[in-house]
Amino acid sequence: MAGLVYDLLLYIPISLVIFFFIVRTSRRRRLRLPPGNLGLPFVGETLQLIAAYKTENPEPFIDERVNKFGPIFTTHVFGEPTVFSADPETNRFIVQNEGKLFECSYPGSISNLLGKHSLLLMKGSLHKRMHSLTMSFANSSIIRDHLLVDIDRLVRLNMDSWTDRIFLMEEAKKITFELTVKQLMSFDPGEWSESLRKEYVLVIEGFFSLPLPLFSTTYRRAIKARTKVAEALSLIVRQRRKESNESGGEKKNDMLEALLATGDGGFSDEEIVDFLLALLVAGYETTSTIMTLAVKFLTETPLALAQLKEEHEEIRAKKMMGREGLEWSDYKSMPFTQCVVNETLRVANIISGVFRRAMTDIDIKGYTIPKGWKVFASFRAVHLDHDHFKDARTFNPWRWQSNSGATSPGNVFTPFGGGPRLCPGYELARVELSVFLHHLITRFSWVPAEEDKLVFFPTTRTQKRYPIIVQRRN
Ligand code: HEM
After folding, report:
1. Are the C-beta atoms of residues 122 and 130 closer than 8 Å to each other?
2. Is pLDDT of 405 > 90?
3. Contact by Cβ (8 Å): 340, 437
4. By its UniProt entry, which CDD domains does this protein fall under (predicted)?
5. Closest-CA residue to 419 (of 140, 101, 87)
6. What pLDDT was estimated at residue 130?
7. Distance in Å, CA 110 to ligand 1 centroid
8. Dihedral over alpha carbons 365, 366, 367, 371 (to 10 degrees)
9. Left if phi > 0, otherwise alpha if psi is -120 to 50, otherwise beta: which for 247?
10. Mean pLDDT estimate for the chain
């Protein structure tokens, strides 16, 4: 009897594994999956992915598989079979068919911490409406007529306190956070925004942890910080709701006011808090990382820095004495700055691509993506592909001077995504970056305080927060 139990204990798992492989292989044949490797049961190729990104190569995992299997391949990462695309047409097809064939899909850690009413997780007609509302708060005319003044003022205010050695990444984060708080709720920076930011950092750290409170301290800390952030925002929402209901009060021209005035029957406080919280996340790490990396690449490319200096000195020289503030026409006369911004977004965008889930079996380029599978549209793999950009892995802002920057036709440059989820902050981010570079270049000279390497996992950043020694110019 004991022998029988023993045999069963041994054979049941083995049979299950064999069954698992047979089912997987036969379904694979039937569905013409893209070529690739699903790796080990359950773990898939997750460990290879993590190990690969510990090198300095920006796309080691994808490079290796594209060489072996072509630009569309199958793998299994973070617990799910996933089709990776390094093909611009397929990426376009994926983002354009949002809500029809694909839907957005974030890892559990991110969606739990964002909250279910965040724009990033909304779907269908509500998403459409709220996406265009967000766009209407960050479009060119709003930036020109309202936001630019604050962007300019807050960037200068932050830089006023810079002396000697600073961590550029930290300063850039502080600036972008303050700008977003101002844009969303009309608050000027102060103790309140700084303590909110400290909690925020903890929430974002939780994005890259296992969403299991029992096992992960980082995740537990992130959940606690999220509660604190939500409480602080709820208080603001309640106060503003009260002010809005009181007749005669002056209406503010910000996102919060628009949210309070929108919706049939209006949004609840919880919905508004989730919405604001996600907007604070969306522009924070992204814009501040690009600010920092633009400075790093420029420092390492003196010719580009010299040309940029010339562009900004010319703008400064044209301004009347005592009127340092930038205007829209100044922003529009920064062609080389836009080349630098594009090139930084191309070489080292923090958003390397987007995850989606197939809503049905989808045929593409002779393959089938099975219903329920994840797909990852890698923008970075396209941005760093020599077939689309000459010397693709070199920072060369001049490539944007002649044409679209690319050597191949079609839309191969998509740092802000595309389709219904196109980043609503794409113009705002460009303006923030340009204003930041203008004041940095015209007011300071700097040298790196120590060597700092670029890393790509779990996010794109420099290892040491890019410490620099700044010197104020006259
Ligand atoms: C350099 C800076 C930025 C980069 C590279 C960037 C990139 C992106 C990308 C690639 C997406 C598409 C995500 C997807 O398709 O799933 C996205 C979405 C989004 N971005 Fe940005 N972004 C930046 C700055 C900003 C700023 C300043 C804001 C503030 C308004 C913002 C707000 C958002 C929001 C709310 C979404 C979600 C849109 C949706 O799901 O409908 N981003 N961003």
Report:
1. yes
2. no
3. yes
4. CYP90-like
5. 101
6. 93
7. 15
8. 80
9. beta
10. 89
Residues belonging to the binding site for heme are 423
* pLDDT given at position 27: 57
- Take residue 441 and report the two structure tokens written for it: 């270049």
Q: At 388, which amino acid appears?
A: H
With b for 16 or more beta-carbon neighbours within 10 A and e for fewer, the 62-101 pattern comes to bbebbeebebbbbbbbeebbbbbbbbbbbbbbbbebbbeb
- Residue 447: per-residue pLDDT: 97
How are beta strands 467-472 and 165-167 bridged, if at all?
A: antiparallel
Task: Report which ligand 1 atom has the smallest distance to the Cα of 95.
Answer: 15
Per 3-state DSSP, what percentage of the chain is helix, strand, and coil (rounded to 5)? 55, 10, 35
If you compute the radius of gyration of the chain from its CA atoms, what whole number of angstroms results?
24
- Return phi, psi of residue 126, to 5°: -65, -45
Q: Does pLDDT of 10 surpass 70?
A: no
- CA 205 / ligand 1 centre spacing (Å): 18
Q: Where in 80-239 does DSSP place strands (E)?
A: 80-85, 102-104, 165-167
Element (H, E) at 446: strand 444-448
Give the count of beta carbons closer than 10 Å to the beta carbon of residue 306: 10
CA of 418 to the centre of ligand 1 (A): 10
- Does residue 315 register a pLDDT over 80? yes
In angstroms, what CA-CA distances link 139 with 15, 286, 291, 330, 395?
59, 18, 20, 17, 29
Closest Cα to atom 20, ligand 1: which residue?
423
Query: pLDDT tens across 23-82, in order?
Result: 555 555 567 999 999 998 888 888 888 887 777 788 889 999 999 999 999 999 888 999
